[in-house]
Write a structure and sequence with these properties.
single chain; mainly alpha; elongated
Length: 75
């Protein structure tokens, strides 16, 4: 299978970034947070600190509610 050049570049950059901090996860996270602050962009976080990926996942309660609504609409 041919390697995707974009994936290869992302992996290379990630490897270089981790190596710069001695693969210390606390230092890596601190640097990423500092980059967020310096970027001037607005980052949205939920109240419980979950990421957008987790927020996009429907909860069991929301799925159940959606099914009940659909059943009422379609009989």
């Amino acid at each position: 299978m041919k390697e995707d050049p974009i994936v290869a570049e992302v992996r290379r950059i990630r490897q270089e970034h981790a190596a710069r901090f001695g693969y210390d996860l606390d230092l890596i996270v601190a640097d990423l947070k500092a980059q967020e602050q310096a970027s001037g962009r607005q980052y949205i976080r939920s109240e419980d600190g979950t990421t957008g990926d987790r927020l996009a996942q429907p909860s069991a309660a929301r799925l159940s509610s959606a099914l009940r609504t659909t059943r009422r609409c379609w009989g």
